[in-house]
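Run log // design_07
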């Protein structure tokens, strides 16, 4: 199975003014595309060359894992955003958030603090634990909950290339933009 760059679920300018077309041209068009371009030759001729992306992520290490996980993480992240997103959580995920954090406001505050404080490059996730509860998890570099027992529900990319063009080093301002775009329909679909 050839690994290809998936289409964005919206136009490159659709997330403005929160995330600029220029950021998407670099983040999606350069960074995400480079992970896809590097992964193909790395799996060619191996037992993973015909595997789907999730199988590659779960069964690889080193450069193969780094590129495959970044392809998967970025694809998941793009779907966490929507030009029609934002607002408070809805549906079943709202109930789980309220049960775990007390209120949406408390969850948003804790998730934002976790993302802002996630040292270096990485990702901040809302995951569903095997017992059905939800939790906030930080990962570094290409690490992803996909390799463990947690079900990823939503993520925010906190590598600097996700926000530097628009917000320079102001990760908290980027997090404000993230909340304005969050696609709760996608998050709820991941809970199903």
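design_07 sequence
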């Amino acid at each position: 199975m050839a690994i290809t760059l998936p289409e964005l679920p919206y136009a490159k300018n659709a997330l403005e003014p929160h995330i600029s077309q220029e950021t998407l041209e670099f983040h999606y068009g350069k960074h995400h595309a480079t992970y896809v371009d590097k992964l193909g030759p790395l799996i060619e001729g191996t037992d993973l060359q015909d595997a789907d992306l999730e199988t590659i992520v779960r069964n690889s290490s080193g450069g193969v894992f780094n590129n495959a996980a970044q392809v998967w993480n970025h694809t998941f992240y793009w779907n966490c955003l929507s030009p029609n997103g934002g607002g408070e959580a809805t549906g079943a995920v709202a109930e789980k958030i309220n049960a775990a954090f007390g209120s949406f406001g408390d969850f948003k505050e804790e998730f934002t603090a976790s993302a802002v404080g996630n040292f270096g490059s990485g990702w901040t996730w809302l995951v569903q634990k095997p017992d059905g509860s939800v939790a906030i998890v930080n990962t570094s570099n290409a690490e992803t909950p996909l390799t463990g027992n947690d079900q990823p529900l939503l993520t925010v990319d906190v590598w600097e290339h996700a926000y530097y063009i628009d917000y320079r080093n102001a990760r908290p301002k980027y997090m404000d933009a993230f909340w304005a775009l969050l696609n709760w329909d996608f998050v709820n679909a991941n809970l199903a």
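The radius of gyration is 16 Å.
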